[in-house]
């Protein structure tokens, strides 16, 4: 059913309301028979979208309210979350940042409601990946992530004014598995190497000050590691 404006060719054009055969409804703007402009589309499931359309697809700025209580507010391209936006999940977690083809992708911040902790850094196809910082109540971790897990060298920064440097490594049994094998049960383990005063973190590594009682050998090894990195 359609109730609204039409152009001289009889196409839906202008403001109108429509009820689709599946029970969904749309109230908004049309251009040459297509939903184009601003409108509200309500799904029979209880979900609804209010925002911009282009030729029947969500495109531009808009907010989608999902049946589970979660919602996304931000950019849309060709019916996909794409650009910049904020997603509030059903459990109260919030992601704010970049999107690409419906996935978290680029730079973004994820806040965990239960703990108040937040991840600030890179994302690839929905997973935490790249340089990042995880901020907790009284300490934070700076390092790299891959497929949602910390990997390689990094450091924990504590509010009391010191840092613990080290790296995340996988267990021996996980290294030999093929990529197709599930390895979700094998979590990376933190291997600490030294504790120092606060240092400056850069995406390409950091200049580690030698511990107060460090030997010349340890200092030389640190220089070699930086050179290799």
From TrEMBL:
Example GO CC term: the record gives: nucleus
Q: Could you tell me which residues belong to the region Disordered?
A: 1-26
Q: Which Pfam families match?
A: MORN
Q: Bias category Basic and acidic residues: which stretches?
A: 1-13
Q: Where is it localised?
A: Cytoplasm, Cytoskeleton, Flagellum axoneme
Keyword annotations from UniProtKB, A to Z: Cell projection, Cilium, Cytoplasm, Cytoskeleton, Flagellum, Meiosis, Repeat
Q: Name one GO biological process term.
A: spermatid development
Q: Does the keyword Cytoplasm apply?
A: yes
Q: What does this protein do?
A: Functions as part of axonemal radial spoke complexes that play an important part in the motility of sperm and cilia.
Question: What is the official name of this protein in its record?
Answer: Radial spoke head 1 homolog
Please give the organism: Balearica regulorum gibbericeps
């Amino acid at each position: 059913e359609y109730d609204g404006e039409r152009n001289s060719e009889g196409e839906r054009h202008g403001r109108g309301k429509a009820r689709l055969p599946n029970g969904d409804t749309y109230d908004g703007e049309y251009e040459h028979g297509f939903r184009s402009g601003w409108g509200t589309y309500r799904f029979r499931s209880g979900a609804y979208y209010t925002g911009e359309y282009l030729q029947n697809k969500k495109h531009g700025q808009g907010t989608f309210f999902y049946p589970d209580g979660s919602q996304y507010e931000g950019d849309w391209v060709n019916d996909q979350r794409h650009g910049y936006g904020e997603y509030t999940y059903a459990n109260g977690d919030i992601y704010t940042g970049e999107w690409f083809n419906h996935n978290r992708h680029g730079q973004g911040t994820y806040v965990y409601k239960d703990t108040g902790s937040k991840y600030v850094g890179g994302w690839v196809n929905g997973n935490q990946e790249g340089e990042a910082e995880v901020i907790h109540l009284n300490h934070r971790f700076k390092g790299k992530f891959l497929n949602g897990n910390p990997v390689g060298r990094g450091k924990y920064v504590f509010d009391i004014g010191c840092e613990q440097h080290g790296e995340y490594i996988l267990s021996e049994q996980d290294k030999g598995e093929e990529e197709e094998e599930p390895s979700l049960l094998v979590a990376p383990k933190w291997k600490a190497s030294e504790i120092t005063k606060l240092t400056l973190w850069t995406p390409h590594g950091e200049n580690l000050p030698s511990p107060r009682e460090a030997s010349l050998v340890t200092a030389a090894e640190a220089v070699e590691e930086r050179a290799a990195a």
